Amino acid sequence: MRFQRVKKWVLERYDSEALRGLIKKKYVPSHKYEIFYYMGGLALFLFFIQFLTGFALALYYVPHPEQANKYVVDIVTKLNFGWLFRSLHHWGAQILIGVLFFHCFSTLLLKSYRKPRELLWITGTILLGISIFFGLSGYLLVWDERAFAAVRVATGGAGSIPIIGQYLKAFLRGGNDVTGETLARFYAFHVSILPFLTMILISLHVLLVQYHGLSVPLFLEGEKLRKVPFFPNVLYKDFMIWLFVLGVLVTISVLAPPEIGKKADPYAPTPEGIKPEWYFYFLFQTLKFFPGEIFGLSGETIAVSLITLAAIFFLAIPFFDRKSSRGEKSRTFTWVGVCYTVYFLVMTFLGFVT
Amino acid sequence: MKLRWPSVTRREFLNTLFTGWFIAFFAACIYPLLKFIYPNLEKEPDFVILNAKDFLEIPNNSTKPFPWGGKLGLIFKKDDGTIHALKGVCTHMECNIMYKPEERKFYCPCHKGYFDQDGKNISGPPPRPLEFFEVRIENEKLIVSKKGVKVEIPKG
Ligand code: FES
Question: Is the ipTM of this complex over 0.85?
Fold first, then answer.
């Protein structure tokens, strides 16, 4: 009775008829490759978890070079369930970035970026980039030796981009070197600038998906596919996957809390065997391949320039792949997609084993 | 002469006015904003003055760190007892280096770069030799300065 009254009250203020109509009309094509459809939803769910755990951690963390490391230690040792939230935030980020790469490469290989979904590709790729930057900035907040060295190398690498590199490096570091200023900056990125951009881009991305519907692989286009209502069939499957991943996440978080290293010290020698987070391996390994000098030019500059070009090309793939846009088979871009994917996988693998 | 009808409509006029206003406004904001977010860069020091006592005593074939601005500096005593000073930052990607006394080399753990005792890059990715400074001892002070920089300390 009560509920009916509340419902009526709300409906008098906002008639949800239109919304309900949309939900009823939303159908999703069903076929062999539909598993890829669930990656976006899963990413959304994981973003949500990152936001929640991030809110909790932000209540206690202080980005000060003298205290930051101690605060993180305090969060995990003294606060109720602090260890759980930090662990969830850490592992949630790892899984999220993994899912995003999977989502991205499956889109690339199935050519779902083709017309009219170019903007989905672009917003998605930028979101992937932002998430990586999220990872790097969050990593520094622990303010331990490894994070310090990793950020020094990463921002130093940004400094090798021709022309804008030096400005970019100083901007990222907030000075000539990685210091407390960098910590303050990365904190600002991590808790205000990047979340804001993420919200905007996710909204756009999701809006565009609703507008265009889900892409069907080229080779299935024209075939008669069964259509399944989004609500409730697909949504239930979404929930199943989310629950499963949540279970995995909590299990890992409880069993394998991430370590906290010694407080960063700019005057200490770099610890032996530092490695960046796994999602930087493909960059890290690429840099390793280049010698210090090639024909008098710094090998690093060449490597970083090539990486930058590859990234720009990646972003612009939908515009180069004219054939797919016309609905024709495009061999070249199948190979391009395979190259990117294989390169990423091989380099990441090498990063793990070396 | 009086026009019989205006050459722009009222809407065109207002649109132009507001567009111009917006552009002018944002242009005026952007410059200070860029200036603000770009940090003030502190220069590396030309010299630092250390207490000679703390550094002259170190054993042969070893190093001791000192702050060179915000960066790592190393005082380095060779086998023959001579004192040298260098910037302890790798020329590849700016990791802090360390001295390996057994091998008599400087070593950068980031990408396994090696430098010899004179700072020459001998293996790994580093593209340039390490930067060595000039060292002078005066009134119990150790003066470490960039090559070519003259440092006069006032007496007393
Ligand atoms: S930073 Fe020293 S070898 Fe790369």
Answer: no
